[in-house]
Amino acid sequence: MCGVVAIHNHSEAANLAYLGLHALQHRGQESAGVVSNHEGTLRAVRKMGLVADVFTVERLQRLRGNTAIGHVRYTTSGGSLPKNIQPLTAEFRDGPVAIAHNGNLINALALRDELEDQGSIFSSNSDTEVILQLMARSRERAFADRLADALRRVQGAYSIVLTTGDTLIAARDQDGIRPLLLGRVDGDDGAWVVASETCAFDLIGATVVRDIEPGELLIIEGAAEPRSVGIGVGSDSQHACVFEHVYFARPDSVLDGTSVYEARIAMGRQLASEWPVEADIVIPVPDSGVVAAMGYARASGLAFEMGLIRNHYVGRTFIEPKESIRHFGVKLKLNAVPHLLKGKRVVVVDDSIVRGTTSRKIVRMIRDAGALEVHVRISSPPVDYPCYYGIDTPTRGELIASNHNIEEIRAHLRADSLQYLSAEGLLAAVKRGAIVGKPTPGSAESGTNCGYCTACFTGSYPVPLSEAPVRRQLRLIEL
């Protein structure tokens, strides 16, 4: 999962891009980068690490220009290496180009093999570079036409921003799997903004104009109004990733007309309706389980307590005592509050269970704090299938739900009970998060027939898979 942001026609474009990346930090913590565009000359700052660590005042001052694009990355394709840090840049005959990409191309390896057979040489392991190589080989003359030509060849999920010359381009795949929105900064500049989530707009004082449509390529040149063209592979149905609402997006964002916060409240309410239990308090697994737990508590009439406290300043540690501190890895991030839990029957709400190792440690932590009973409630269905569209989920063999039924998972967690939100309940909850006046996937205003992608729960992939995509083994490792 990654986050992208782009600013066009603003005198402080790089500074705004940097702030936008701060708001999108939750979408990727491995690397961060900003490329500025000053009259066709690109300047880049790209490094491994968090946004606050990568950018200094001095580095930002070097990023001149009225256009800038930014990227935060969590590796899903190509490996966590410096050469894969985005935005990627390349030199074309007509000038340099920079691109930032959120998503995953499921036919990237096949296209890469084809391009290498034709003489292409790649400088990264990223699937994003395939788009640049396809553009370089396109016979179209205009830059936007080259991009559209390349995007017609790729399959999977992409929300991308590019800059070249005096142009900013944004594009979203034909299924609209990953979010991408257009905004405007009020003021003399009349700047345009593109970002993965609306929370980036809020931080820089931009207003939301609209969601970029599935299969849309949006061209912003100079101070002119954006010009929209179809990529030519549009779909009548949108398949927005439902897991954005379950976990990835920030609660204060609005995606495709749906409030993430209201959707998660509705998930918790629906979960309480489907799986009530006699208990004393409801606690969340912070931070992603907080809003759903609030919904569960409201619907059940139980008290909501923050029985687990998260340490937001963990960072990375290379010291891990083997025996002296039990559950060390989880304790770095979470700590139980014994006086809230002791002697209580506890409902603990989380967004999902992937491998089950962390959930088991959390249950043990709550019991060690004195809870009489621990009832686990999950605000999404069991994650039974891998995601190939930009979420770094394990292989199916590593997913606990694909190999065990709910009772077996409960026994593994050592919980008194375990229940998941149904797939039907999840979709109903997300739809209840729609904001009045905002077109949502499947509404007449959106022009699409929705649609959420639920492949990780159902195995029904909107982009057909001829075979499960695999990562190419790295042959050059940068140290």
How would you portray this structure in words?
The chain is an alpha+beta fold and 479 residues long. It has two domains: 2-235, Aminohydrolase, N-terminal nucleophile (Ntn) domain (Glutamine Phosphoribosylpyrophosphate, subunit 1, domain 1), CATH 3.60.20.10; 254-311 and 320-429, Rossmann fold. 29% of the residues lie in helices and 26% in strands. The chain contains 17 helices and 24 strands. Strands 3-2-4-1-10-9-11 form a seven-stranded antiparallel β-sheet. A hairpin with a 2-residue loop joins strand 15 and strand 16. Helix 5 (128-137) crosses helix 6 (143-151) and helix 9 (260-274) packs across helix 16 (423-432). The longest helix has 15 residues, at 260-274. It is globular, with a radius of gyration of 23 Å. The two termini are 23 Å apart. The model has no long low-confidence stretch (mean pLDDT 90).
